[in-house]
Amino acid sequence: MNANPKFLSATATVDEAAIQPLPNSTKVYIQGSRPDIRVPMRKITQSDTAASFGFEKNPAIYVYDTSGPYTDPEAKIDIRSGLDTPRLPWILERKDTEELAGPTSEYGIERLNDPKLAELRFNLHRKPRRALAGKNVSQMHYARQGIITPEMEYVAIRENMNRRAYLEELKQSGPKGEKLAELMGRQHPGQSFGASIPQEITAEFVRSEIARGRAIIPANINHPEIEPMIIGRNFLVKINANIGNSAVTSSIGEEVEKMTWAIRWGGDNVMDLSTGKHIHETREWIIRNSPVPIGTVPIYQALEKVNGKAEDLTWEIFRDTLIEQAEQGVDYFTIHAGVLLRYVPMTAKRMTGIVSRGGSIMAKWCLAHHKESFLYEHFEDICEIMKAYDVSFSLGDGLRPGSIYDANDEAQLGELKTLGELTQIAWKHDVQVMIEGPGHVPMHLIKENMDLQLEQCHEAPFYTLGPLTTDIAPGYDHITSGIGAAQIGWYGTAMLCYVTPKEHLGLPNKVDVKDGIITYKIAAHAADLAKGHIGAQIRDNALSKARFEFRWDDQFNIGLDPDKAREFHDETLPKDSAKVAHFCSMCGPHFCSMKITQEVREYAAQQGITEIQALKKGMEVKSIEFVKSGSEIYQKQ
Amino acid sequence: MNANPKFLSATATVDEAAIQPLPNSTKVYIQGSRPDIRVPMRKITQSDTAASFGFEKNPAIYVYDTSGPYTDPEAKIDIRSGLDTPRLPWILERKDTEELAGPTSEYGIERLNDPKLAELRFNLHRKPRRALAGKNVSQMHYARQGIITPEMEYVAIRENMNRRAYLEELKQSGPKGEKLAELMGRQHPGQSFGASIPQEITAEFVRSEIARGRAIIPANINHPEIEPMIIGRNFLVKINANIGNSAVTSSIGEEVEKMTWAIRWGGDNVMDLSTGKHIHETREWIIRNSPVPIGTVPIYQALEKVNGKAEDLTWEIFRDTLIEQAEQGVDYFTIHAGVLLRYVPMTAKRMTGIVSRGGSIMAKWCLAHHKESFLYEHFEDICEIMKAYDVSFSLGDGLRPGSIYDANDEAQLGELKTLGELTQIAWKHDVQVMIEGPGHVPMHLIKENMDLQLEQCHEAPFYTLGPLTTDIAPGYDHITSGIGAAQIGWYGTAMLCYVTPKEHLGLPNKVDVKDGIITYKIAAHAADLAKGHIGAQIRDNALSKARFEFRWDDQFNIGLDPDKAREFHDETLPKDSAKVAHFCSMCGPHFCSMKITQEVREYAAQQGITEIQALKKGMEVKSIEFVKSGSEIYQKQ
What are the binding positions for substrate in this chain (chains A, B) (predicted)? Predict the structure, then answer.
């Protein structure tokens, strides 16, 4: 496939839809201990509570913002130049890296020197960096030395979502301030199944979690454009969006658009799973314009280099691919090193065999050569590369189940155990690791899978695809899997890889990407609430208060997708006046359940606390005042 | 609002979209112990496995079919005449009912005699029936006397989904038959949390479950059109679709279309929540054309009768409404009799107060009169009406939480306990009961809610609205609630009331109804799988086998929504040839993970079992044969 013409390097432009700020939202930056630690949040302004509901100020709330500079009107966005590089000073000041003369991989050099690619190529002036000989530049390595990096401080600030500022502003908002702050900040304690979620995320907590391998900050030194983020069971549950063209469909331009679109709606990470002709160039465009970590599956590209013949893959080709991609700035690599020879025959008994592309490539290689894969045999060599750029492992589940039938079978669980062993090898090298998980799993087997992962992989972050909880709904697998994702997130999974409605049927377009993202933001947030993640409920509380007080615009704006909520509302009540109406189309103007509570409250206020207590005890109180004074449920139109 | 002109009684026509059979599907009827017990199933024909995958016959599978005669090309559908009345002989032969001269409710008589309504009115020639004096015509009453009614036998056959015929046909399908039947019928044992799901549903089991109140068959004697179905924790999880106009929007015609549309996609029950001007006439059209049980909330109509002034409601008006609706054939009534005076002030502390319409009406009435509601005070009188027509109680949760903040609070749990007490009163009268549940509940509080319901309501079927697991996604509440619905279904809920994407924003249109239905079919089925409901996994297995064997059409057709799956697939690979292609657009023709398993299997077959065992033990075996003989992953195009 050819690149979309507008992404030829001279004329590429950003997707206009990706750079509009969200309604009533402004980008704010919370400064850390130094001026160059500026952590973005989205501040959503709210209107006051109407006098009829008892006037109250509703301070702006802050939400986690993955959209990067795109939604900042102050930022100058030029796709051809890529994003600014806020991390670069942090990397440089550590003085443990060197600038290379250029790409050092054979393939990287070849692509750079191919004049036919000039038009497609992103015009990068910066040279790649690598750790100085003998140095390890991983965040885990720093953490284990007791160093709190700017990246660690950054994610600590980010995770707290400026909660204290919001609650403080509530306290100061008026005579009811203290009470309101208490109300709006309250949340259910949650059930975290042994997680250790602190009241406040500190930089030291981040460091300690990374040091013990329970969290990672994917942050290649060649991706200085990122706004650092953390993946771990004691932090907010994250989501990953997969994009990528195939030989059958889509172009470079479309993939860059999908990336900016995915992060607009909340994608914390993006994996580029391209398998087409211009993998190298597509990736460069994506990374240079991505404020979120980018993951890849290097074996896909290695396979292209041997014309699709898995048996012809070699360690040398794979190694060159790792270096090529590490020097472009890929933040994590999916490596299917757990597909061992002895597990492959176990899949012959399955309903759907091997469904992981990477897993199938390695299985074929293992069978053809009848030996363990070069990924497994060279695992420590791979670690050496990872630590020279700080690429994190995403240990691939090449044998994940592709159907309910195959869930939690011996092949899957055998591989999981091997991934646990590899985790310890990686940790020996201070290399960051997360573990990929399934797949298709019925609800009652999800917890078993999670518990085994925690135990066998020593709490290295789990990163699951769904899981899909049934096979019978092609076209709706964002939902079959969103159900499983919410649960496994609750049980301890750190990042959820989205599934779009097109799963099993085709490659997702932008509509599908958004549906997948929003579904997974829901799953991740439901998991945060159930775990009792501190502050998670603030957004629910704010939205519910807006809903109860008929602040329609606030209800839309605080939601995950203000555009959709507004569109749905306007289908039945399009007039602007309906946005301030104290009713909605479900019950109509003459009938509304929300109003009764207002009446109950007014009654409570009038009668005083004694009367209320009497009511509670079922004692007789005069009711005449209520009838006289109660404002009517049924508003006159 | 006026009725849609095409639903004027003279010219009303059925929605053409509702009467097309689904792809490759035929309606079959399984006969019971007598010729007039004919239980519908949808039979989905499959193609054979291609020779390249090892030829196999794939017998048709049978799925539960809620669509009624609409999808039967043999049936003559005329909306103006309503459906046939297969239950009528069963009702008549019991000789415990009498035909009335006409409606006996004041309101029913009034509407019948109002000439202005002639054009809108469904032209019903049949007279209503009622139990003979002193008789109780509830299914529970028969069950407790040890009688197995035709309705009970019907649902028993229905629940088994003709599983044995499918497995038997597999066994007979060829030399691999026995093995295939074993494979395709196998499923995970599940975790049922104390449910008692039998290997085979017998009519006697149905009877015993109804007798002890653990299941209900909603089946008003004035709704002889229905195809009986059962709601209980030891049966397949069911779903309910709400339809209904409001003063702001929609018409009779639209509501009838929504009903036929909802059952096409799997709605087991439909509730008519209309609050507009022609509630009575709308309901008649819906019931006469509905093969599924219809539920209502009678207080909505009673309120219309007092011009929306809750305080003016009386027992007499409510009683007349119950009789009016019972004589039309409503199968279950939501009755908010658990909203007690002492619970109302508890809601003053909530984030979102009272969000149930019925709950708010009763709360207002209680406060205004300062006494317990007529629903509570006259509960036994209501039981007398219910048993004269076999209307089931759906005890409404008027104090369900409307936000995460309010989940499982004292108001909600107080009411639940009262509903348990009312259940025992209803059971004293042999009246069938289910219990409505929330609402908005974070995941970790769902099980607590379920367990309390089982305990306090003595395993009367739970019927929940979602629950929504977060408040932050208006526009996607089918998903926020589908997550909770799947879980609560797994834990023991018998029926899930759908939530559409329009929840909180507007009334659902047909697109929303379908999205809600499919989401809830997914949730219900995921719950069946997790509970280990016998036979539930057959459909997953069949779909996954089709997927693995690249039988695209079978994959679409076995799914919940063949139209959507086909449409998504065709977006990227529209040619018919792609439907038989051994690849898909996700990975493209040169790359496919499914093929490797085929190779592994072929390898296994060639090497024989000894070699495979050697492989498992990690021993050396010759690999040259594999390389020589393995068919390539990468198909030449």
Answer: 242, 271, 300, 336, 356-358, 397-400, 436, 463
